[in-house]
Amino acid sequence: MTRALVFDLDGTLIDSAPDIHAAANRMLADFDQPPLPLETVISFIGNGIPNLVRLVMEARGLDGSHHAAMNAAMLRHYTAHPADLSTPYPGVVAALERFAAEGYALGVCTNKLRAPSMQILEALDLARHFQVVIGGDSLPVRKPDPAPLRAAFEALGSPAFYIGDSEVDAETAQRAGVPFALYTRGYRKTPVQELPHSVAFDDFGALPVLLAAQP
Fold it and tell me: What is the pTM of this model?
């Protein structure tokens, strides 16, 4: 059976925080609220846009009754400009090309809604590398529930590694029983040593060699 690698999106393949930050501040402006700094919005990334909107609202002391309207505004702003400022992390494209040349099947499993995920992957010319993309709305549940990750691997082949950057990703891999490679330059808030992982790396150029050395 083909060996498969599945990647998280935000904070793993791409630095999407600048676009998420811009959309969040446009949303806040719609509701006559002052902007939040980039570092604050980065700390809210990882559990999908509805959760990010909830945290933004809490940061601004806003009533939860506005969540539906603010979530709609966030989605409108983000889908209008999903990749103006986002970029793949250094070495990502070369690593994906090498993995494909080595015969791996590649996929994405993210808590971002699938439509904006595909917009971003297409805009950054990354979609061509992936045979399956599981978004936060592809199944009734999201990460850290293991079902989305399992669905990605079921579509691709035998699980080799899940590659992600966050606490959510580490828990998802652990619950799915899949080896986890932790990208340490993403959006995690927990020290590396406190997250369960088989491999930790800060350079995508080194990832193919690191994974090849694993039993």
Answer: 0.93
